[in-house]
Amino acid sequence: MDRGEIRKIRCLKIQNNRDPRSRRNRQIPRYRPPSSSPSGDYSYTVELVGAIQNALGRLTEAVDSLKEQSKDHGKEIKEISKDLHAAKVTGRALLWVVGAVGTILGIFLAAYARQLFSVSGK
Questions:
Q1: 20 — pLDDT class (breaks 50, 70, 90)
Q2: Three-class SS of the chain
Q3: Across residues 36-56, what is the average pLDDT?
């Protein structure tokens, strides 16, 4: 007997002696609803439907409230974005003004320095 035959024999033994707990041998129990005849008392069902409707009404109110809040937040965000845009425009304009004043001041200081040093050199 070679190794291949030994493996085949072992496999056959394993297949014949299956573990009853293995997945292949499991029987899935089938669900069978309880057999009860409908009675004339539906008070529990009516109470349950009323509770569901009450909860649904509260959820609807909450959703409506959240919609209104999101509209308010949207308006606030638009206002903030307008303020930011105005701040950026103001900052740019201020930089241009400071740059222009600095340039003019630099030109005057350069002319003054040239005059100051040219007079002292003579």
A1: very low
A2: CCHHHHHHHHHHHHHHCCCCCCCCCCCCCCCCCCCCCCCCCCHHHHHHHHHHHHHHHHHHHHHHHHHHHHHHHHHHHHHHHHHHHHHHHHHHHHHHHHHHHHHHHHHHHHHHHHHHHHHHHC
A3: 81
Cα-atom radius of gyration of the chain, to the nearest Å?
45
Of the given ranges (15-19, 58-62, 71-75), which has the lowest mean pLDDT? 15-19
φ, ψ of residue 42 in degrees (nearest 5): -110, 25
Round to whole Å and give the CA distance between 106 and 92: 21
The contacts of residue 19 (CB under 8 Å, 6+ apart) are: 25
pLDDT at 90 over 90: yes
CA distance 61 to 56: 9
Dihedral sign, Cα of residue 73, residue 79, residue 83, residue 89: positive
